[in-house]
Amino acid sequence: MTDASSALHWPGSVALLLASSTGGVGQHVRSVARGLVEAGASVLVCGPATTQDQFDFTGVGARFTPVEIPASPTPADARAVTALRRALADTPVDVVHAHGLRAGLVAVLARPAAPLVVTWHNAVLAGGLRGGLSRLVERIVARNVRVALGASADLVQRAAALGAADARLA
Fold it and tell me: pTM for this one?
């Protein structure tokens, strides 16, 4: 009989990326980081410094590098792209997994060498100029990721409709 923990062993390395968060996405990333660390992976979490303060990613065994990604697009996104590139150059990983469209856009623009996975956590509900910009971001992210994961079936369908080569429910 095999030990269950050995069946879940994966000695790879993952970078988890998130934008500003005060709840669900941050808690989810902390949970994913914990599970990966427990499976033997090396985990780097990149996100705003306030997310480390709130969710304590290092407390579950991950490393943390600040990458300031605000909730809404700004010209400062260029700094986030540069910071992510620097973090990935300092700590090469096997997979980059961004959570949410804001983090997904920064990851796409950073063009990591590792495969990019983006989890779509929320539907775009905004209208007007902001909604149009968000729909453009959806399209860019969908067409530039290895795998698009959706937190619900409608998000998987949306990613596939926008051109994701591989869209799955997660």
Answer: 0.91
